[in-house]
Specification:
The complex is a heterodimer of chains A (338) and B (377). Chain A is α+β, with helices and mostly antiparallel strands. Chain A has two domains: 2-81 and 118-172 and 227-270, Gcn5-related N-acetyltransferase (GNAT) (Aminopeptidase); 271-337, Barwin-like endoglucanases, CATH 2.40.40.20. Chain A contains ten helices and 15 strands. Chain A has helices spanning 12-20, 34-48, 137-152, 176-186, 190-199, 203-208, 221-226, 235-244, 269-273, 319-325, and strands at 2-6, 59-66, 71-79, 90-100, 105-115, 122-129, 160-164, 214-215, 247-252, 259-264, 275-282, 288-294, 301-310, 314-318, 332-337. Chain B starts with a strand and ends with a helix. In chain B, helix 1 (12-22) packs across helix 2 (33-47). Chain B is built from eleven helices and 15 strands. The longest helix of chain B is centred in the first third of the chain and has 15 residues, at 33-47. In chain B, the strands form two sheets. A ten-stranded mixed sheet of chain B has the order 1-2-3-6-7-10-9-4-5-8, sandwiched between helices. Chain B has a five-stranded mixed sheet with strand order 13-12-15-11-14. Chain B has three domains: 1-79 and 121-133, Aminopeptidase, CATH 3.40.630.30; 81-117 and 157-271, no CATH class; 272-341, Barwin-like endoglucanases (Beta Barrel). Chain B is globular and about 80 Å long. Chain B is an alpha+beta fold and 377 residues long. The chains are: A alpha+beta (338), B alpha+beta (377). At the A-B interface, strand 4, strand 5, helix 4, helix 6 and strand 8 of A face strand 4, strand 5, helix 4, helix 6 and strand 8 of B.
């Protein structure tokens, strides 16, 4: 069975392997360096245990495990405060009207403003899954398990959620938006900059980012086309998040101009449709497959299970599911339809 | 003989012909009769002191006395940026550095600025093709410094000139195509014309206000920022010889440089001296190459006149001139005139005091004497 649970130091090697296969863009939230990743896992465990402070806000890292083989198949994360105590950088795409009465000319001029507006909102991040699972229910389990975690620990998270979606990248690895803009200021290729943004403090972004707004019309045509466009590979993820209620607003990633999706936390479908139920036994695999989550903090577990709902807010699930969740009859679980 | 004089009512036809022949790129003198007439009117009011000093537009014509035609024009605008906002880009530098990464990136930017506001501009220089050469261009340009010097209180301490930037034979400007056109939706020549007609508010309304990062512009545009049109190279060299320097500002349309100098540092002004006119009926040879000629001006605000003559007639206190020169200058014997070399490094029989020169006692005394003369009138 597939199980989502907090990452532990023992997961280090398999996570590194997954991070290594995911291309450049993920590295900003899922480091490829052993030490950086070990730190991240340690911080995540502290976060699950509720042992963090304001300087280093909680960052949670989950893994998807095949419970039969013990294999780690994917990762997903939540940063409780985007920017993690430092500014969270985006471009805000906005427009100015340049109009001349005298000439009878009116023109819409698009501008990218450097913005920290999304700082401290909760961020879904570090999503990576083995390619063979992309079309299975495990994909949805891994992504939405985070939302069940948020539902269970609502007070740890802000009222608004954001997700950065990877932007357009060419076959050869070049990123049109980066080449037209960031490259001039950072004097490094996209991969290097992206990696730094994961491993180093974000001050280097502040130091190197152009401080003034950027006129869209001065970007290369390819870069203009890439604004707010998602990478082909991220389409399933994008669609899943859109079904949850995330929408692209006016914010863009500063490196690749990928869209930043936004949502009100309490309006997310998983939070609206999930319910707390009392756990009871079922002796057969009857009922619809649902997401089921239980456990506080470091004990959080989430999996897929057939669920038969009985009257009075009780659910009947197979006993093997109990074991995965470390729960027994009468305990409270959270259930959401797939 | 050629003489500089204030622009007059009857110069309109000659001006129009000159403007027509000049083609695109001369924003201060478009081929538009109505506009040219307005300029003439403005200049007339200025010389007659019927407009506020800061609104003055001093336009001079180069007249061929033999034909009575105006064959060149040059001007000084007393102050820019008062009626209309005056725009330039400041070529600036932003450094982004990260010690952590060992990165140090310099990014040139173009920042919209109004820095030249309230400064005097030398402008509108145009000389008919038939009269190019022989130092006529020098006279047409440098006569303005003689005027600036005489009437300093009407002008700012610093003067500047906008040099025409790079454009190709079809009037296409690489900077305009890469930058202006993205915001204006019109051809360079069209925008240039509008700007010349004085409709400058459209610039403020349509122009990008935030700094432009130069590396984001194509190579062709970057290459012309601060560069002059090939036809303008001689004019730039002439101004550089006068002590003008690029001040970091460029034209917002074509990227041509702005050069500036403090009035008291301008070479023509530093080297100029006063003498008394001595009109002589003896026949005089007025022919001499430009390097051996001097500009000689009367000292009239309303009817300023400048012509050139050989330097060899300058004496310790007087300058000899034949009646036709005196007439062109509208001076008589005993009137004070001002003299300056026409060409830098040319023959100049005066040892005026210049910084860095070794001044012996004799010449020191001579200078004092000349100074007392110039304060005498």
């Amino acid at each position: 069975m597939w199980l989502v649970r907090p990452a532990t130091p023992a997961d280090l090697e398999p996570i590194l392997e997954i991070a290594g296969t995911q291309g450049a863009r993920l590295s900003s939230t899922l480091p490829k360096q052993q030490e950086a990743l070990a730190n991240k896992i340690r911080h995540s465990l502290d976060s699950f245990a509720g042992k963090t402070n304001d300087e280093e806000p909680p960052r949670f890292l989950f893994v998807l495990e095949n419970t039969e083989t013990g294999e780690i198949l994917g990762t997903a994360g939540i940063d409780a405060r985007a920017g993690n105590g430092q500014p969270f950088y985006n471009y805000r795409r906005d427009a100015l009207i340049h109009a001349s009465h005298e000439l009878g000319v009116s023109r819409r001029v698009e501008v990218l403003y450097p913005s920290h507006g999304l700082t401290d909102q909760s961020l879904l991040c570090s999503f990576a899954i083995k390619p063979e699972l992309r079309t299975t229910d495990a994909f949805e389990l891994l992504s939405r398990a985070r939302l069940l975690f948020i539902a269970e620990h609502r007070e740890w998270f802000s009222n608004r959620m954001v997700v950065e979606i990877q932007g357009v990248q060419e076959e050869d690895g070049s990123v049109p938006f980066w080449d037209s803009l960031g490259r001039h200021f950072f004097n490094m290729d996209f991969q290097t900059a992206d990696q730094y943004s994961g491993t180093l403090s974000k001050t280097f972004i502040a130091e190197l980012m152009p401080p003034n707004p950027i006129y869209v019309t001065l970007l290369s045509p390819k870069a203009q086309e890439a604004l707010g466009q998602a990478h082909k590979l991220t389409v399933p993820n994008l669609e899943l998040l859109q079904r949850e209620g995330f929408q692209a607003g006016c914010y863009l990633d500063i490196f690749d101009a990928g869209p930043v999706l936004e949502a009100r936390t309490d309006s997310l479908r998983t939070l609206v449709t999930s319910d707390r139920k009392e756990l009871h036994a079922s002796h057969e695999d009857a009922g619809e497959t649902c997401l089921i989550a239980a456990g506080e903090g470091e004990d959080f577990r989430c999996t897929l299970t057939p669920v038969a709902v009985t009257l009075g807010g009780k659910v009947q699930v197979p006993v093997r599911t109990w074991q995965l969740l470390n729960k027994s009859a009468g305990d409270t679980v959270r259930v959401a339809p797939l | 003989m050629l003489v500089i004089r204030p622009l007059q009512e009857n110069d309109l036809d000659d001006l129009y012909t000159m403007a027509l022949n000049a083609g695109k790129g001369l924003t201060t003198l478009p081929a538009d009769r109505e506009l040219l007439q307005r300029k003439i009117d403005h200049a007339r009011e200025t010389f007659n002191q019927r407009c506020a000093p800061e609104a003055g537009l001093y336009l001079f014509a180069l007249e061929d006395i033999d034909t009575g035609k105006a064959v060149g024009i040059s001007g000084i605008q007393a102050r820019v940026g008062l009626d209309e906002v005056f725009y330039n880009y400041r070529l600036s530098l932003t450094v982004n550095a990260s010690k952590e990464l060992g990165v140090h990136v310099r990014t040139p930017t173009l920042q919209l600025s109004n820095d030249m506001t309230d400064t005097s501009e030398i402008c509108s220089l145009l000389l008919s093709n038939d009269y190019q050469g022989g130092g006529n261009g020098l006279l047409l340009s440098r006569c303005r410094f003689m005027y600036l010097d005489e009437f300093r209180k009407h002008f700012s301490e610093k003067v500047f000139a906008e040099m025409r930037g790079v454009s190709d034979r079809n009037g296409q400007s690489p900077l305009w195509d890469a930058l202006g056109a993205k915001f204006f939706d019109m051809e360079f020549s069209e925008a240039d014309k509008l700007s010349g007609l004085g409709n400058k508010s459209f610039i403020a309304e349509l122009m990008p206000k935030y700094p432009i990062y130069v590396p984001m512009l194509p190579d062709s545009a970057r290459a012309v920022i601060g560069r002059v049109h090939e036809n303008t190279v001689p004019a730039l060299k002439m101004l550089q010889a006068e002590g003008f320097n690029f001040n970091g500002l460029v034209d917002i349309f074509d990227g041509g440089p702005v050069v500036e100098a403090f009035v008291h540092n301008i070479r023509t002004i530093r080297e100029s001296v006063n003498r008394y006119a001595l009109v002589t009926s003896k026949s005089m040879d007025l022919e001499a190459p430009p390097a051996e000629r001097v500009m000689v001006s009367n000292r009239s605000f309303r009817d300023f006149r400048v012509t050139t003559m050989p330097a060899k007639y300058i004496g310790p206190e007087t300058v000899r001139m034949p009646p036709e020169v005196a007439e062109a200058l509208q001076v008589q014997s005993g009137d004070s005139v001002r003299l300056a070399p026409l060409k830098e490094g040319g023959f100049w029989p005066i040892h005026s005091h210049r910084a860095g020169d070794n001044v012996d006692e004799a010449s020191e005394n001579r200078i004092k004497k000349y100074r007392s003369h110039s304060s005498w009138d």
